[in-house]
Amino acid sequence: MNIDQIRYFLGLADELHFWNASEKLNITQSALSRHIQALEAELGVVLFDRTKRKVELTAAGTFLKTEWARLLTELDNVQRQARLLGDGETGTLRVGHPSSIRFSILPDLVVAMIRAYPNVRMELVSVDDVDMEELLMGYQIDIGFEREHPGHASLASRLLLVEPMALVVPESHAISAATFQSLSQVADEPFVLPSHCHNGLYMQTLYGLFPQYGFTPNVVFESDHGTTLLSLVARGLGVTILPLSYEKGAPAGVRFLPLPHDTSLYMIWRQNNNCNLIRNTIRVATDVLTTETA
Which residues are paired to 169 by β-bridges? Predict the structure, then answer.
């Protein structure tokens, strides 16, 4: 018994006429008859009652018509799902991201992925105080967005975006876009900043700004969550420095003042993960960033 024989059986079960069924199945009437006889011999049951005037399903044939039709539909669905997986058009994608892109790049990426690949399910993991590279190497996420080039040799990356850093002050602050000239203007103010215990390139870049302006910040509160820092600034508890992309999702009561210093955003993934879903996501993310910066 093979799939073709089952399809021939179902074709005849629908038509109940050998000539009509053979025409639709694109085989000769004699070949169809041989396949049905072979199927009946293998099963040990008669599937059709045949007379010169008509062909009818037996009870066994009626049962098998229902069950085999259902099974073939399931088989077709399984094969279709396998092709979609192979093409990267379905599956689950676990994405790690910093909170800085939660209101800017990330929503645009999700919308673009839904439009291009509606059968892909995305799991979004906000990562600020956890090592993104460890999550990737531990197979806890499939792809990540990070502010620095990966250091692990087993990770691949693509630079997606270079954006300005910004000084963030309370809306009521005396410094405005018209009067802001230098970071040294807030040298004596309290700062709320990410923890200095992290030693990545982003943190080196951030804390490396202050010596360029001749002061060490008075850090009164530390948090690795940008949204927390923004809330503290909005309450007037200090000023901070964040990537400018935070401005899109910032709470009321803060003001962003761009600085002449940049930070990068990379997409990173495991080099040994060459599935088409990853390739498709990289392409969509690149298209999204290209559109936004055009």
Answer: 255
